[in-house]
What does this fold into?
Amino acid sequence: MAEHQVSEDFPRLADPFRRELLAHCYRMLGSVHDAEDLVQETYLRAWRAYEKFEGRSSMRTWLHRIATNTCLDALESRARRPLPTGLGAPSADPGDELVERREVPWLEPVPDALVGAAGADPASVVTGRESIRLAFVAALQHLPPKQRAVLLLREVLKWRAAEVAELLDTSVASVNSALQRARAQLRQTAPTEDTVVEPTAAEQRELLDRYVAAFEVKDVAEIVKLFSQEAVWEMPPFTGWYQGPAVIGELIDTRCPGGPGDMRLVATRMNGQPAFGLYMRGEDGTYRPFHLQVLTLTGAGVSHVAAFFGPKLFAIAGLPEYLPARPTD
It folds into this structure.
């Protein structure tokens, strides 16, 4: 194949799969930043090998093969990415000292828009969102890399066992065994389908409207009412995690530096879930990024909040760098 034809054909054929490849690499690595780098590496490897692509599989399958191998290579030298709940410690007391560990490679959230979970057709939305939910991706990080790959290829991408065996240079029996072990591990660490059933769209809107209103005036009593009985709050890079509405309320009351009117929330979508960029008012009245909250909703209320600190996530989520002071300020 002539080099100029490769240059012309490859982007046209390969670019449509960029978002799903990013989703695949994100599930494997647990980091949107790492995933973006590995997608670039995938396309570089694919472009170099395109002359040898014989079309025995689809372009999608071929690119996912390359992406999976790229991720497995990367995972040889990288630690898993946990959330605080995955460190093995019991829930913390709000009065305990906050321990910050920025050296830990924490799990990161991913914007829906980057991985195609927003605006997809109805048939694929459920599968897409379920496969990038924060709890699912966090559970994946507990699996060894090859088990992680087997589960994603078989359960999410729906590859046949023989295709996975060929990719991993192993037997079908080994693939099936790895899948069984991965499923067993996920049953221990991931929520069941029943626990992630969301309220109706109208109920979600009402719950989220109440959530925003309560936070922006720091109405702790109202915030407590919005959490389910077993709700969890965690906030990497701080290692503690907190369970129960009263405990979460005390944490917000005593540890959140903002007072009534000091916080503003801007809605977005992360990991197929409602999310908010929380901005804190400075001395000049300008609101600047404080943390990015990803919420899990159930019929009983907000069941989980992961609050990620770091302004770089605001940029990836497409949120503004700051919010101007309000006229009343």
User: Anything to note?
Assistant: The longest helix spans residues 32-49. The chain has a mean pLDDT of 91. The beta strands are 227-234, 241-243, 263-270, 273-281, 287-298, 301-309. The radius of gyration is 21 Å.
